[in-house]
Amino acid sequence: MFESGQADLWLRGKMLDQLKSYAGPVATDDVSKGWNSLFMEVHVYDLLQRGDVLSLYPYISILNFPT
Rounded to two decimals, what is the model's pTM? Predict the structure, then answer.
C-alpha cells in the first residue's frame, strides 16, 4: 500500500488533521479526550523512563492503577 517512508507521512498528516479539532485539556469531545489520553500516556512514560516514580502519584487514579 505504501512505499518506504510514505506511511510515516500519511500517519503524520492524519494526526495533524485530528489535532486541529483538539479543544483543550478539559474538553469532553471524543477527539480531545483521545488526545488527552495520548498526552497523559506519553507524560507518564517519560516519568517512568526518568525514574521519577513519585511524580506519578497524581496520575494513579486517572490511569486506574491500584493504590
Answer: 0.57
How far apart CA 42 and CA 64 sit, in angstroms, is 16
Annotate the chain with three-state secondary structure.
CCCCCHHHHHHHHHHHHHHCCCCCCCCCCHHHHHHHHHHHHHHHHHHHHHCCHHHHHHHCCCCCCCC
Tens of pLDDT, residue by residue over 2-31, are: 666 788 888 888 888 888 888 988 899 999
Torsion angle, alpha carbons of 54, 50, 19, 14, to 10: -140
